[in-house]
């Protein structure tokens, strides 16, 4: 395979998901193909609030379908096209898009001969149904350069950025800020990013009632709101393609994103419980002892994880029977304790592994310019092995078949697809579909798709779930639980998790979490304040790290109010009882709180499946009329009820909490009521994280169970008065795909004036509502 002088074909440039064997959108003619003095502009509606704009010099490129990620069919129903004064106007019930008229180009001045762009200019604007301007694209760019042997372009577009516009999403960035305004976002998957792994999901949501989906999987630089402009620039491409999604609420925008790229499946109920992991459990007996340790202590636990190097060699896709002599029996014992299992499967193959030669011969590994497998990179010492080329549908199908036959057959339930960024960086190399630079960010979508589709086909009534640490547009449809990668075990790392997670969920991917306590070996600076927990009895870290139990408790408290709750780390012990005698009872209480709230949390998961909206929510989503929340990244909503304010400073026993305006709030611990629109100082002793509940909330709670495998009765339905409220309580069997056909729902309705709570149908548990109601403050 020769790289130099490669001709970029139209098929390679405009390759959509159909070219890589994934579900493809139906190819349709755009509603209109405009000519602006040689710049071809295609307008393609997908819904009343979703429109795609494609700009190219080549007509065929402008008309070509989207790239990988979007899967919806275009739909111009209800849209009209008219021309006024040379401008083209496209209208629906939700949007008006105007492609501006462009005057005939005049001869350039002497200055313009040097500075004038060669592209025929294009500008356009998008307004909502009320005529309010949402965004204005002011120009586009194509700058020629050569990348990985291809003569191609940097392609981009610029948009006006009002002073009061704020920006969220774009995947995962761990720089510690929520609002992306005024920053450069290098949108690429990068494990070694200095602050923690970055993940590119090129979907950006604003506080102005719209979001932009950027349709290009190459490395993309984004400068949101910098010098009064927002600029996108992909490093490989021959056209500009993007979608605008509008909404009266942010949830309308996320419903549009789900319509465009796929719904978010409901994870199995066990995925909402405690997931216990360690890097690594070295034997079958060690793993079973940990599981039994939870049961003996009466602590709830749902999933045990078998992490890496349970195999004989990287790429064998086997189980080392020296240390795991009976994996099927091990999983049977876990099931008998009401637990499930997740097992780590890596996409790399050592040269000495049994499948390497076959994969190389078939061309199913990432290749260099000469067609040879790329076997590791000289960056870190864990780089051995070649990367399976998951852009190839045959390779994906083979990979799933080996996982199914070699590993799932031993009773493992779900799969941890590690290194989905991938760790073997594809830049400078080649996938089967083309340059690793052109498809820089695609791997996590196609790699998880192979397992999701295989599981759906071969285990049709068993609910899929995949643990993954990178994502791309549409990755949510593959059943992923995403996490922030191998972060450090420090207070600084904890602080950075909060805004990182909020931007990730703001990118349309609802299920995110972090390695509780950090993944890296526990090591941090000396505490600057009195330590709040005695480390006596700690085995999880060296006794030199005297504040590590305090850090772990704070991290655990925060994680109880994230979509997934997973303990993991590269340390001697990770289990709940290994952080010292003082920490253990506090951790146990917070774990029980998670299970108490399971009816509420699982119902939130169902709502995300129905709506596409995340349930870990930055405050801008729910309080658009309060400008003070636009940049708050250390507080968030967990569903419609809870305002969460994590404690992320060592020795901190108080913290300020801003209560958004427009509603009253209840302190969850004291039931004291506060009016919103102000900041209060809140007590935060080590056993308590500030939590508030919005007035007009309904929170169903459950009795204690040892895992979600038990049928959980409701303990109470708590009502926080102050406004009318509705909450859809949901339940199902927790493991099958029956939820797609309905499940058991009951809409709980609170009438604040009559102070009455009713249900529109029988409760999923069969209990009578009357004996469960608890009205706070009464």
From TrEMBL:
<dbReference type="InterPro" id="IPR051816">
    <property type="entry name" value="Glycosyl_Hydrolase_31"/>
</dbReference>
<keyword id="KW-0378">Hydrolase</keyword>
<comment type="similarity">
    <text>Belongs to the glycosyl hydrolase 31 family.</text>
</comment>
<keyword id="KW-0326">Glycosidase</keyword>
<dbReference type="InterPro" id="IPR013780">
    <property type="entry name" value="Glyco_hydro_b"/>
</dbReference>
<feature type="domain" description="DUF5110">
    <location>
        <begin position="717"/>
        <end position="758"/>
    </location>
</feature>
<dbReference type="GO" id="GO:0016787">
    <property type="term" value="F:hydrolase activity"/>
</dbReference>
<dbReference type="Pfam" id="PF13802">
    <property type="entry name" value="Gal_mutarotas_2"/>
</dbReference>
<dbReference type="InterPro" id="IPR025887">
    <property type="entry name" value="Glyco_hydro_31_N_dom"/>
</dbReference>
<dbReference type="InterPro" id="IPR033403">
    <property type="entry name" value="DUF5110"/>
</dbReference>
<dbReference type="Pfam" id="PF17137">
    <property type="entry name" value="DUF5110"/>
</dbReference>
<dbReference type="InterPro" id="IPR017853">
    <property type="entry name" value="GH"/>
</dbReference>
<feature type="domain" description="Glycoside hydrolase family 31 N-terminal">
    <location>
        <begin position="41"/>
        <end position="220"/>
    </location>
</feature>
<protein>
    <submittedName>
        <fullName>Glycoside hydrolase family 31 protein</fullName>
    </submittedName>
</protein>
<feature type="domain" description="Glycosyl hydrolase family 31 C-terminal">
    <location>
        <begin position="612"/>
        <end position="699"/>
    </location>
</feature>
<dbReference type="Pfam" id="PF21365">
    <property type="entry name" value="Glyco_hydro_31_3rd"/>
</dbReference>
<dbReference type="InterPro" id="IPR000322">
    <property type="entry name" value="Glyco_hydro_31_TIM"/>
</dbReference>
<dbReference type="InterPro" id="IPR048395">
    <property type="entry name" value="Glyco_hydro_31_C"/>
</dbReference>
<feature type="domain" description="Glycoside hydrolase family 31 TIM barrel">
    <location>
        <begin position="264"/>
        <end position="604"/>
    </location>
</feature>
<dbReference type="InterPro" id="IPR011013">
    <property type="entry name" value="Gal_mutarotase_sf_dom"/>
</dbReference>
<dbReference type="Pfam" id="PF01055">
    <property type="entry name" value="Glyco_hydro_31_2nd"/>
</dbReference>
